[in-house]
Q: What sequence folds into this?
């Protein structure tokens, strides 16, 4: 079966104003809206489009995290994924651990393509896709803004600092997606109903033979320094004068 | 105990990137640092010489291979991983090059990575932004673990020159994978300063309305010797090319002067300019969030204000 696996992470919604806990032990997540990582939505959308074009038979979404992640997996099923895998754990999961666990799922599901976000907007790590590709000993194409699959190969256009770079990789491989790859579809109400009946499999982390190692210990969270309140000028002349005074013009 | 730090050089067209010199500056903040820079290139000579002249670098290693004419993470990672054995830290810049290759190296070394280092507190303790810069996290890596990290270049000044490191050729016997091939790169060429290193940046948002509209920013930028930047909305709409995007998913910059013109100031945009020395905002909406971070704000219509500024500069 021609299958695509998509990595999904549950994160604080990107519209939420992040606040650090006063005691510096984390950021406030109680009562805060949680969503599918926006990059992962784009990864899923791309997988669905490939399937709709006849390039894949099945789209499977997978997440590692606590029980609540099932909400986000249901959203993905409503978007159109066929099946969901939930590696359940309450442990803090480092990117390397997520990659090791996803590798176990890759070995089981044998996808020809793994699509992931280029970064999770909570920890901003940007690591898991590349780590999975390394452990799997397969190619990686990061920051994709265009993806063309041609049999056993994929041409990927990547957003790099210099502009746009195109590389070709042999499949199977890992592609991490950037924002401009596509615009994810909206979920319609009937699809939410249908998604309730789609298979969602829960897998206990311990059964996969991977340890949730804690190599990185958070020591302290703090809010960033606030900028000083600035001044308002009334017109272009005042602006130019102010900049000249600062020696910037 | 001295800490042995390996820095993966970034370069293009025989030029070492400023980001690499910034990695050296970061590494120099690790106690008792002994710094080695490794250059993977088709022909490493010129780049190696530039790296050798950076202060605090004690050794430069070169790995030459025709396949390194284009930097591909999947090819570079196994070579660096093979070299990393005797080092305590492996660092690269937080550019798209470093972001692509460093996690692959980390995984090959079976170690976790610390991304976007903005401050070094000790050889095992580092500070980095998370949640698009809305929180700062100090993180400690387990004793004895090899540390792999990317350096948030906007947080550092480049290491100065004046060094004279030895240059050594490494013959790598790592088989290079053939599963990844370079096809092409399209980089817009222009004579303007580079967005990432420019002292001044003029940046435009959705309000510019068209690629044509962006021209007034290019004119202003040229007049004051600035680079041009853009918000994601402007790039998505096709007004500006993607490499000009500033923000969480674009470039993180730290110019002396940043002029945000017709940009609302979404959190994801502000992440990219937190370290700018002076922020100027021109926006017709006095409630726009950009004014909360602007040092100098001007409420007005950009299509009127920008030409006026230009005229004032002409005299
Ligand atoms: C995961 C994620 C990552 C993102 N990453 C980035 C990123 O890296 N960079 C980024 O920029 N955005 C990013 N965004 C998008 C961000 O949330 C905003 O949508 C975007 O920055 C808005 O761009 P803008 O300010 O140009 O447009 P708008 O928000 O539409 O603002 C336009 C502004 O122009 C003003 N204006 C209109 N006409 C005039 C005029 N004639 N004169 C003066 N002012 C005028 C308006 O008052 C308004 O404030 C990201 C979003 C997500 C979800
Ligand atoms: N816990 C997780 N479960 C499933 N996928 C994940 C998890 N963490 C990260 N990913 C995937 O890896 C991408 C990059 O995450 P990160 O390396 O944490 O920035 C995300 O966009 C997801 O696609």
A:
């Amino acid at each position: 079966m021609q299958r695509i696996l998509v990595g999904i992470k549950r994160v604080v919604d990107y519209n939420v104003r992040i606040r650090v806990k006063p005691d510096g032990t984390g950021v406030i997540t109680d009562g805060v809206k949680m969503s599918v990582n926006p990059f992962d939505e784009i990864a899923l959308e791309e997988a669905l489009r490939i399937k709709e074009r006849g390039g894949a038979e099945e789209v499977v979404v997978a997440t590692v995290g606590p029980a609540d992640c099932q909400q986000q997996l249901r959203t993905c099923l409503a978007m159109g994924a066929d099946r969901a895998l939930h590696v359940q754990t309450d442990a803090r999961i480092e990117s390397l651990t997520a990659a090791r666990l996803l590798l176990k799922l890759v070995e089981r599901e044998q996808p020809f393509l793994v699509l992931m976000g280029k970064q999770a907007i909570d920890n901003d790590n940007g690591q898991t896709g590349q780590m999975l590709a390394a452990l799997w000993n397969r190619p990686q194409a990061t920051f994709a803004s265009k993806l063309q699959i041609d049999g056993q190969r994929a041409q990927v256009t990547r957003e790099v600092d210099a502009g746009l770079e195109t590389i070709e990789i042999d499949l199977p491989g890992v592609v991490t997606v950037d924002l401009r790859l596509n615009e994810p579809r909206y979920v319609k109400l009937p699809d939410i109903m249908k998604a309730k009946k789609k298979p969602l499999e829960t897998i206990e982390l311990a059964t996969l033979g991977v340890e949730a190692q804690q190599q990185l210990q958070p020591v302290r969270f703090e809010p960033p320094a606030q900028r000083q309140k600035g001044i308002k000028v009334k017109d272009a002349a005042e602006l130019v004068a102010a900049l000249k005074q600062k020696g910037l013009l | 105990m001295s800490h042995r730090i390996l820095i993966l050089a970034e370069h293009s067209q025989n030029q070492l990137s400023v980001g690499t010199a910034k990695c050296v500056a970061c590494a120099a903040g690790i106690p008792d640092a002994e710094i080695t820079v490794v250059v993977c290139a088709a022909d490493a000579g010129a780049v190696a010489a530039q790296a050798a002249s950076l202060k605090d670098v004690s050794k430069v290693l070169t790995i030459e291979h025709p396949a390194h004419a284009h930097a591909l993470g999947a090819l570079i990672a196994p070579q660096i991983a093979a070299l990393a054995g005797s080092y305590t830290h492996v660092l690269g810049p937080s550019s798209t090059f470093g972001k692509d290759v460093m996690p692959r190296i980390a995984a090959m070394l079976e170690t976790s990575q610390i991304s976007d280092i903005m401050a070094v507190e000790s050889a095992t303790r580092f500070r980095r932004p998370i949640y698009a810069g809305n929180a700062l996290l100090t993180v400690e890596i387990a004793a004895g673990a090899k540390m792999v990290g990317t350096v948030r270049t906007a947080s550092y000044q480049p290491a100065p020159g004046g060094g004279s490191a030895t240059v050594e050729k490494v013959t790598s016997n790592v088989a290079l994978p053939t599963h990844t091939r370079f096809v092409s790169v399209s980089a817009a060429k222009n004579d303007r300063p580079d967005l990432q290193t420019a002292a001044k940046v003029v940046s435009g948002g959705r309000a510019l309305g068209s690629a044509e509209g962006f021209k007034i920013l290019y004119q202003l930028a040229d007049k004051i010797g600035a680079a041009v930047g853009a918000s994601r909305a402007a790039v998505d709409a096709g007004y500006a090319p993607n490499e000009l995007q500033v923000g969480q998913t674009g470039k993180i910059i730290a110019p002396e002067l940043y002029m945000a013109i017709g940009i609302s100031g979404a959190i994801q945009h502000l992440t990219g300019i937190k370290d700018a020395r002076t922020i100027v905002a021109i926006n017709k909406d006095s409630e726009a969030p950009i004014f909360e971070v602007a040092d100098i704000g001007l409420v007005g219509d950009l299509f009127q204000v920008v030409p006026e500024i230009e005229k004032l500069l002409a005299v």
About this structure: Chain A has one domain: 3-245. Chain A has a mean pLDDT of 96.
